[in-house]
Design a protein that fits this description.
The chain is an alpha/beta fold and 228 residues long. The protein is 40% helix and 13% strand.
Length: 228
């Protein structure tokens, strides 16, 4: 059982397609605590990341460089960035120069619903192959569109013209370009929000449904073994 299509691809490469592999998108119980919202955009766009600046691998430098690019273009007064979770220690002082960047530190799972209430767009800037990346699902559970790098399982739920925007190069330059397009055309956030809410069940799976899904898979495997 693979957690995402990228993980399935990796498994197949390692096993030379000699075993039966199926992708099953996993879930986590706390998604049920996150209540979807309807987004109404004001003048200042509010971006957020969940642990996206915790490490280099999670995308800390990618996000910082994108902020710098937008600042040089004079767009800092058009958006805010909320950083939740970890923060790479070496970036702490540098971020203080930006008045539109807010660091909130660690959070508890049961706080997510309220934290995301103030967010318009989520950013998942990982530069490594995320097996799946639950932070993206946490944004989607709230109805928030996401900018996701083309890495690992992130693209399984980051769908162009439906749930968000894909940073195909996973670079700061392309991230800044996507953010700028959103800043200059904010109504697209509300359009994506409506699409996410309408299709939410396709991305957010309840734990009960997932247990049933896994139970069926084990039953299928047992039946195959019996025939052998």
């Amino acid at each position: 059982i693979a957690q995402s299509y990228k993980v399935e691809e990796i498994y197949r490469n390692f096993t030379n397609n000699e075993i039966n592999i199926k992708t099953v998108h996993l879930t986590v119980k706390h998604l049920e605590l996150i209540k979807p919202k309807t987004i109404k955009i004001n003048e200042v766009i509010k971006f957020a990341t969940l642990n996206g600046m915790a490490t280099v691998q999670k995308g800390a430098h990618v996000l910082l460089e994108a902020i710098k690019i937008l600042d040089k273009k004079g767009l800092s007064n058009k958006f805010q960035l909320y950083i939740y979770g970890g923060l790479l220690p070496t970036l702490k002082e540098e971020l203080k120069q930006f008045r539109n960047i807010f660091y909130y530190g660690p959070y508890k799972i049961n706080e997510l619903n309220n934290l995301l209430e103030n967010v318009d767009v989520g950013i998942v800037p990982s530069i490594w192959e995320e097996a799946f990346g639950y932070v993206g699902l946490e944004f989607l559970a709230k109805g928030i569109p996401i900018i996701g790098n083309k890495k690992g399982g992130i693209v399984d739920y980051t769908v162009e013209n439906l749930t968000g925007w894909i940073n195909k190069s996973s670079s700061a330059k392309e991230l800044a370009e996507i953010m700028e397009r959103i800043i200059r055309n904010p109504s697209i956030i509300e359009d994506y929000n409506k699409k996410i809410l309408y299709n939410r069940k396709d991305f957010i799976k309840s734990m009960d449904l997932h247990v049933e899904e896994m139970d069926n898979l084990y039953e299928e495997a047992i039946n195959i073994a019996k025939k052998e």
